[in-house]
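step=predict obj=Extracellular solute-binding protein n=436
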Amino acid sequence: MKRSRKSWFVLTVVMVASLLLAACSSTNKPESGESPEAQNDPVTLTVWGQPGIDLPTNVDKKNQEIYRFIQTEMEKKYPGITIDYVGKGWGDDLRQNLMLATTAGNPPDIAWGEDFVPELAKLGVLSEVPADYAKDLAEGPMLAAKLDGKNYAVSGMTGIFALMYNKDVMKKAGLDPDSPPKTWDEWLDMSKKITAAGKGEYYGSVVQTVGLGGTFRIAPFMRQLGGDLTTQDWQSITFNSPENIKALTFLKELSLTAPSGSTALSDENALYNLVHHGKAAFGVAGPWHISWSQAEKCDCGFTPLPVPDGGKRANVIVGNTLWFVLKQSKNQEAAMEYLRIIASQEYQEKFALATGRMPSNKAAIANPELVNAIPQLTIYGEIVENEAAAPLPVYPKNGPKVWEAWYKAQESVLVGGKPIDAAIAEAQKTAEELLK
């Protein structure tokens, strides 16, 4: 994911809030009392998704089956419906595009994101999702879809992190490819040995440090020690906890075994292909790396994240795609039906088979046929069962600016070499001021 939350995003918030009353009133049901769907037959839905396997332009047969399924299900209620899939990026690029489109009064009917649903819901941009749409979805992934106890999205898939390792690189360095590291000390020791053996040809570990993607991969190691970015209620900043500083100290050491320049990469494809292509041995990876590594012809293994001495297993919910309906959509009923399909067991099983991703639907997660089809999911299933995991926090005020303070600190430490205590203290002070 690219560098997060451009500063001008904050400037659009006031504009959005001031325009929503007029925009939303113009998109309510017509005076006749008929829904827009009834007046405009057939319906056209605009869906913002991510280019690649998640859009129907992908020619993979399993991917195509997903979109045929969605189309068939939608046709049952809306014959002749057209679903226009548009790629508008991910993360902060998607957020900024959504804010611009909403401000201009021409947003999509449906979009997806990961970490900013409560922010958009607080602005009044999103439609509330009926509670029964989420009744079959796991609680953890749905935490990031809520504001004040109400659902504003459904989780289409989810994930947590494991350690991915390239078996060929381990063999080259004289290590047992069937014995990946289990502790921080073992991981660091192996990474140093691999880097030394590689002599510039291959290295120990890739360490993602930039923006939101970096934070996602840092958070589990803080949580293993009992640290986090906030208190559990998300109300108070805890950037400068001793546990967080210890985790950053370890990751800084680990980053010294990374390929030159890689810690500054914002392109996740480029970063993790270093592992897939044998330029590094280890990387922190979500379940989407199962199919990704296979596509790159990597003999990659997956194992739970190594744990520090005195720590415990912990994780973060990541790759949690949240589908939501924009309040300005003129096709509310059809858009909500799309979300119902996304939340269904049948859809999520099809998507998992096509992508290797973890379902959020509890029945799909428990289906043994899915695990048999994608054996590597067993590791991720074991992690879900044995590790406490929650989303990244949602800040109660000035969220984008608070995140920027943290991103600046993590990057100045892990990329720029700024002293950890100083960088984190500065970020703590800035964040506390923003929450006043």
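step=describe
Residues 8-25 form the longest helix (18 residues).
step=end
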